[in-house]
Amino acid sequence: MARSDARRGDGQLRIIGGEWRGRRLRFTPAEGLRPTADRTRETLFNWLSPTIRNSRCLDLFAGSGALGLEALSRGAAHCDFVEPAQRTLESIATHLETLQAADRASCHNSTAEAFLTRTTSRFDVVFIDPPFGQHLAGAACRQLATCGALAADAMIYVETAATEPAPEIPDTWELYREKRAGEVVYRLFATAPP
After folding, report:
1. I need a labelling partner for 187 at 20 to 30 A (CA). Which of 8, 50, 173, 180 fits?
2. pLDDT of 7 strictly over 50
């Protein structure tokens, strides 16, 4: 979702790699809404480069849609965007139309919890970047691990504020990579040894 950094409140995101590299997209600014930083996304997608192409992705706390749009730009087959704020979700849908990628995505006006309760899809890559300071990452990880939505060899990205305690992660997930960038800690987990 990428929410919290007031310095990124310009209502704009840039796709940094793949088919739409360099494209700038505007979104409606909202309190605490910001795209995951360019440098963080670059590192993350370097980590994911062996698996992102043709994958089915889930941007669970979509916000600006930066993570899911980046995944599609880099060759993901499909991405589901989950966002409870209707206006924010409409921005993502507009971006998908602009990029001629609406047929490769689905937008869900829902909370993460409600979406995971009802989905029957299985995902190869899941992005968990909830609003900071609300301790939502751990609950989302626990629910994701038990709801049957993960492919056998899924990768799960979790981004939290550096001031928050590390979220509780299911025992069946292995830490693949971890990094801190300023006020953010981001981790990539695998459900099977990478």
Report:
1. 8
2. no
Q: What is the pLDDT of residues 145-173, one digit of tens each?
A: 999 999 999 999 999 999 998 899 999 99
Reported for 102-105, long-range contacts at CB under 8 A and 24+ positions apart, including other chains, are: 104/72, 104/76, 104/77, 104/78, 104/79, 105/68, 105/72, 105/78, 105/79, 105/80, 105/81
Reference 50, options 17, 75, 15; nearest CA is 75
Structure-derived torsion over alpha carbons of residues 69, 138, 119, 186, reported in degrees to the nearest 10: 20
Task: Kindly provide the b/e burial profile for residues 97-110, where b requires at least 16 CB atoms within 10 angstroms of the residue's own CB.
Answer: eebebeeebebbbb
Q: What is the dihedral of CA 74, 146, 138, 194, to 10 degrees?
A: -40
For strands 24-26 and 12-14, give the pairing: antiparallel
**188 bridge partner residues:** 157, 177
Fill in the DSSP letter of residue 185: E
Total-model pTM: 0.92
